[in-house]
């Protein structure tokens, strides 16, 4: 997709390539027509199986037709491999694209980038040619017109490093709107992760701009290609940090031909019902793994010790189950199962003893009798007294409103201060009217699963910015994906939450994916080396154990640090934004959350037309200049970034230096830092 890609061969060859593109497009249109016009078989009958099959057929049809639509701005192929004669069946040349296209006879015209024969496009080198003679990369206009190509011969003398030039041009192509795919230039270390098998899970630690998000999204597309059947049963979910981020990445998978992947935030998925906010310390404690033990104890404290037996009457006959027999049943069931099945089993086991008594008297009761006894009043009375029905909200409401109950459940797990942070100052009268925070809803989720096992059948889970998730959130996500696998992406240096787990071992442990392969990406593609070197001065303070990333490119005048006084501060911000708007691509002004709207007003007063990120859904599509609250910058990138007053970003939150590291690493080409207060010590050295 590089406009500037130039032809090394004559125009005839470019014309021939264009003619091939036209032929491939016509073939795709024919494939679409074939599927679109096809009747979907409908099986008669209305039972569940038949309905299920009809619905599945309909879904498959819709998916297939959508996948075959020729998107006007997505080129049909982006590369070509010329193989040695006879290397692959009957073909000595393949075109590689985002999906498979064949001609009327079924012969392939474009091969899906995920197919095994496409692998050398990403992996073949001059020292390991994999039978490839030539790699060709194409340049396209924004409307998918072929503008040129560059050749990289893998034999003969080296002309120049065409691959690097192509990668650089691709990275620096000005951004307009949401994130694009990187399918034409996936790097070998990224490709290893994209094509790693579905199991075991994969965890990627990577510095800013090393391509973690891109790897996660391409990996989903790859897995849906190789494991479509398995994954279509359980589904795939991508979890990102917030709506602005999801909006930013939303077009990548559709461009790769995958339209049916759910992309959500953890709050939307698990905490829909959240209405209350937590103090930071309460949120931290609520996210801590020790809460799992506290909740477990609180729940099981509802199971009491029987103080009476059961007397069951049928006509004139009476059957007695003694108190110590009930006690024995309770202690054998206690904590050996989840809470609700334990409660049911208690009634069934008491009923079973009654049945044995009946048999001792030569009666011959059957299962129906056992069920009837289990549901009878005397059995239910003991069941309700000893093992009452409970609701998650009831347990949590009591825990946060009753200091003694909390102290008992907490035992040695929580300090007095931590318990005080959890207790509500004004508890709701009843659990039904309690207002829950996002962290509470995750605890409710944990309780719900301890009461009744949740299904956990998700096929694959991608967690982006996973360094920010709490232990309790990770447990909730892991439960949804018990048999499936995960791709966990993040950077410990960018952890900004108070409840962050702090190490990948811990993250994977809470997620119950300790078998995951942990890999590291350290080549920074997004951020020019001068900027990454500058930001990395913060690493000894924020993540001393992490390696220092290396930027793969330098860009002239990439970084400027400008000191201003109170009076000139706004003018300098406006000037920096105007200068960057004079070039191409996206521009962001990033400031502390509580400063951003005032600065946005100043930009408007200076005649600029910025949008405020987070105000709606798709601001980055509509305008080149966005004002970004520092707390929403994570995961995003812009061609040019103007950072206002770093000291204020740092002061705004306990992990403010981590936040600043995130903010400083959003720029693809230029970063201006404008400040009146001194920069953090590490940066001013
Ligand atoms: N192989 C590649 N080819 C072209 N561009 C790439 C490649 N890898 C990364 N990039 C560029 O780097 C950008 C950053 O990628 P991505 O957002 O996936 O990084 P990240 O590691 O998730 O960063 P962060 O930690 O800041 O969220 C991409 O949008 C793209 O511009």
In short, what is this structure?
With 685 residues, this protein is α/β, with parallel strands linked by helices. The strands form 5 sheets. The protein has a 6-stranded mixed sheet with strand order 3-4-2-1-5-6, with helices on both faces. A 6-stranded parallel sheet has the order 9-8-12-13-7-14. Strands 17-22-21-18-20-19 form a 6-stranded parallel sheet.
Task: Look at the helices and sheets and give the structural class.
Answer: alpha/beta
- Provide the spatial order of strands within the biggest beta sheet: 3-4-2-1-5-6
List how many beta strands DSSP finds. 22
Strand content: 15-25%
The number of helices is: 30
Task: Round the mean pLDDT to the nearest integer and report it.
Answer: 90
Range of helix content:
40-55%
Small-molecule binders here are: adenosine-5'-triphosphate
Folded structure, characterized:
By secondary structure, the protein is α/β, with parallel strands linked by helices. It folds into four domains: about 10-170, no CATH class; about 190-270 and about 455-525, 3-Layer(aba) Sandwich (Rossmann fold); about 310-385, no CATH class; about 530-685, P-loop containing nucleotide triphosphate hydrolases (Rossmann fold, 3-Layer(aba) Sandwich), CATH 3.40.50. Helix content is about 40%, strand content about 15%. The protein is built from 30 helices and 22 strands. It has a six-stranded mixed beta sheet with strand order 3-4-2-1-5-6, with helices on both faces. A six-stranded parallel beta sheet has the order 9-8-12-13-7-14. Strands 17-22-21-18-20-19 form a six-stranded parallel beta sheet. Helix 12 (about 290-300) packs across helix 20, helix 14 packs across helix 15 and helix 14 (about 340-360) packs antiparallel against helix 16. The longest helix is centred in the first third of the chain and has 26 residues, at about 10-35. Mean pLDDT is about 90; it is low at about 1-10. Adenosine-5'-triphosphate binds near residues 212 and 214.
